[in-house]
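Why does residue order matter? Because the sequence determines the fold. Keep that principle in mind as you read this record.
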Amino acid sequence: MKVSAVVAAYDERENVEELSRRLHRVLAGLPGGDFEMVFVVEGRDGTREILERLGNELPGIRVLYSEGRSGLGAAFRRGFAAVSPEADLVVTMDADLNHRPEEIPALLAERARAQADILIGSRFVEGARSEGIPLWKRGISGLMNKIIGTLFDVEALDKSSGFRVYRVDALRRLTDYRNNDFAFLPEILIRATQLGLRVAEAPIHFTFRTHGESKMSIPQTSRSYLALLRTRFDGLSAAVLLLLAVGTGLRLLFAFPTHKFPPDADALLSGLRALDILAGKPRVFYSYLRIGALESYMHIPAFGLFGFTRTALSIAPLFSGVATLFFFFFFVREIFGRRAAAFALLFLAVPSPAYSWLYLPNGYAETMLLCVTTLYFAARTARTGHRDWTSFALGLSVGLGLWQSIQTLTCAAPALVWLVARRPDVLRRARFWLLVPAGFVLGAAPWILYNVLHPWATFHDNFTVRPAGSARDILSNALYLFQYELPEIVVEPNPFHMPPAWDRAAPVKAILRVPAAAAYAAALLALLLALRRRRAVSTQPSARGGVVLLLSVAATIMVVYVLSEAGETRGITERYVLPVSFVAAAALGLLIDSLWQRRRSLAVAAAVAVLIFNLSSYLWPWTAFRRHLRDLDRSDRALVDYLEAKGISWICGNYWVVYPFNWLSLRRLTGVPFQRDHDHYAYGSALSNTDSKWALVAVDPNTIRRWRGNLPLEGKVETVEKRFSVFIPSDRERARWNTGALLDALQAAVPVPAGH
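Structure:
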């Protein structure tokens, strides 16, 4: 076996003689002793003369000289071209004694053991040591390692290490690199990944130079890496960035200009919890004990920028929605590869109509984000094995998810089981057992603390974890799931329940609903067929493992829904199985990817049918219903001004009508629903001042008439903004009622139709 050592040296007279003697001694001691040392020298400081003198003393030294500086990548390209045809392996290393020649035998042995085409002497794997690296160099190296790994799916931790062993046959396939400077090192790994070559890492002891000056400057290195990103940025990468931009733009249109949210009273609850937090009252949950207050904490920075407005409340779900797009792409890329992930991203960037509900500040955007981050980190760990940061991030995601909503366990539980089944070796890593629980405890700390102080309260008061009442209920849940919930998620043409007269796109949706549903059915079939498919090319992962994960997630979500009390809830409840959207989008991506390789016209037709159906079903800013919601927002604010001018301190009415005014008035005005079980934050029980001025508010004048007729009540009714009917009692009437008595009387009165 012949080993060729290639070293690029630019003005290294302080280090080159010691390096040459140590390197020669190590190579001569290898079994067989067949080697050569190729020095690519640039500069005028005498490095060439030193090497030429050593060449007369030490056999095997060859010098390629150029006075002008061409760059590290160009120098190594010259060196690789000069390698002897008889060479089997090429070793590269820095000329400044950063790398220790004495570690070469260990690297050669590890390359043989791992059967690697490229073996990297790594500073970042377990067992490695680094000394004296400047902070700025650590920062640039660490940042670019993360960026390159993310954009180009390069698994190696140390992508910029120059201490490497190449198999010559593999190196000759890697001639297509274009960067002439420092970034040629990660560029070679990008090409190796694209070609399906095997890359491994082994720990080294790295010592920053003690003699001479570093040739790596911040501007030069930055330009080199930017050039790398530009030259290696292919059409698929551009398509992914475009889809991310489209998805972000759509979510901006969903939320802005801001308007009265369709389920306004529920949507403003997280804002009310944020007010509690700002008042020095930390909160763990915002919706009973089911949904964590994570989003409420996220609102607080937005308040500083946009004030206490619906605009501020729209920022957190927008951030979470955009982050979900990124992690969804990375997740599908892990299980199906880049192209299928790009197609899948298309259907989440332009999501199903029901999914667009997630622009609302109701906590579900964060729930979905934590579901997909858990799936991503589990899939990443399954492919690469234990890495400290991914293991910690996996635990943190599961922990935050548990705090946010127990619903996230329907993704976390199958993902963790799948991970252990795919990579049982991670369980043998002590740091995995340390970092995953550490991340989990950190993320779930609020949830854990609450359950310690109130023993297992989140289980006692959460219908999601209580079993269904009977076998008949389970059967009813299953029928409802397949007849209503799943179709709602993918092909509901009117998720916002706009009046039919305002739904001008209804004919288009009616035409496209069937082909869109057919595309989803075909996608499910494609998932099942992928269980039998072997990987198409060496650079694409096998689809089987990813399909098993997706089907496991879907099955877990549906089983929990059917067997729990959550399934017994009827109405707008597709949110209880909403993570199935990830499975549906990934399945569509796999289907379109498969069709794209066979019949592109059919792939385009299927994608267009789904996308146009989705686009026709959104609550666009220019639609009549959306303009109506903006008008309602102005009416709400006008009513706050009116009531405050009248000296009203609390109002009573239907939950959907009066509860939003707690947020809109920043609780200067208390809105109390006459339905006591709808008073989420017990505002009614806190009202003890019977002398405070109150009013009844409704959007239907008949509601006020019925209440007055059944009680009866003295006072006057006024119309505000041609929308609200406001009953203001006389002073004698107000003194006659305390809060509890009034609520009891209203509760006993004629029920108010839903929504009034």
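The chain has a mean pLDDT of 89.
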